[in-house]
Amino acid sequence: MIDERVVLVDEGGRAIGTEAKATVHHAATPLHLAFSSYVVDAAGRVLLTQRAFGKPTWPGVWTNSCCGHPLPGEPLADAVRRRLADELGIVVDTVELVLPEFRYRAEMPTGVVENELCPVYRVFWTGNPTPNPSEVAAYRWADWDELREVPGLSPWCLLQLDQLTGQPTDWPLADPSLLPPAAQV
Fold first, then answer.
1. Which SS3 state, helix, strand or coil, does residue 79 take?
2. Per-residue CA distances from 4 to 1, 19, 102 (Å)
3. N or C: less crowded end of the chain, CB within 10 Å?
4. Do the annotations mark residue 69 as ligand-binding?
């Protein structure tokens, strides 16, 4: 297993170092670079996933399709593709930026904190994923309008719902120059 590292960033979104993914999340998690993605099918539904119960952060929580961290020097769109393949067996070519400046901080009941600059992406894909059970406990396709009704939806997903207006097929593409500097690789 490789020592997967996350990119630490300052308040301006500039890279200031790296830390092992295995140790970066705790009560005083430093600000770091991440991403969220929404897989949208031909009917305009969104793929929701339930995080595996063995995950150290937010186990068992329902959330958007896939989240993750780019490796140092890895373009965010490549990280989205990599994690979709690893977590869900989904291979896509086109990854579309929809929220370049999304940022959040959330604390689990255990005191573990997420503290991320987390640009949001949309991908179009139709089919049945093949989830990696160490990453995803369950999945379901949902109409966009019913997402707020999902009990216990992840805090970052709820915040993203406030910024993603209209139907997923109609979300406007964002300007990549608005990404944090650390993500402009």
1. helix
2. 8, 9, 23
3. N
4. yes
3-state secondary structure of 170: helix
In 3-state terms, what secondary structure has residue 20?
A: strand
Catalytic: which of 11, 19, 66, 116?
116
Task: Give yes or no: 118 in active site.
Answer: no
Does 25 belong to an annotated binding site? yes
List pLDDT tens digits, range 111-149: 999 999 999 999 999 999 999 999 999 999 999 999 999
CA pseudo-torsion sign 161, 112, 178, 79: negative
Say if CB 80 and CB 35 are below 8 A apart: yes
- pTM equals 0.96
Is there a binding annotation on residue 26?
A: no
**107 labelled binding-site residue:** no
Quote the CA–CA distance of 56 and 61 in Å, as a whole number.
11
Catalytic residue among 11, 19, 66, 67: 67
Annotation marks residue 67 as catalytic: yes
